[in-house]
Specification:
Elements: H1 3-36, H2 38-46, H3 48-58, H4 64-85
Helix pairs in contact: 1-2, 1-4, 2-3
């Protein structure tokens, strides 16, 4: 098995893991927005800029910064680093 295939397979696994972490963290933020109000939930779900605002300024959780950083850092990592190498 060539080394390039092993590296590509490993990066593909990291890609999937990053997407799962980002999705779970974002889901926690969206559920919290729906718990606040239906309008905030729908805005957070369909308008990324409002979701960004909600995550930083209105989201209240014991692990707020871990969840917010997990969501946005994994999205950024998958989008900019992994995709450019495959």
């Amino acid at each position: 098995m060539p080394v390039a295939n092993v590296v590509s397979s490993f990066l593909g696994g990291l890609d999937t893991l990053g997407l799962v972490i980002s999705f779970v963290c974002w889901l926690l933020i969206v559920v919290s927005a729906f718990n606040d109000s239906m309008l905030k939930g729908f805005l957070c779900l369909f308008c990324f800029l409002y979701g960004f605002w909600y995550a930083f300024f209105e989201f209240k959780h014991k692990w707020k910064w871990v969840i917010v950083i997990g969501s946005f850092a994994c999205m950024f990592y998958v989008r900019h680093f992994i995709r450019s190498h495959l």
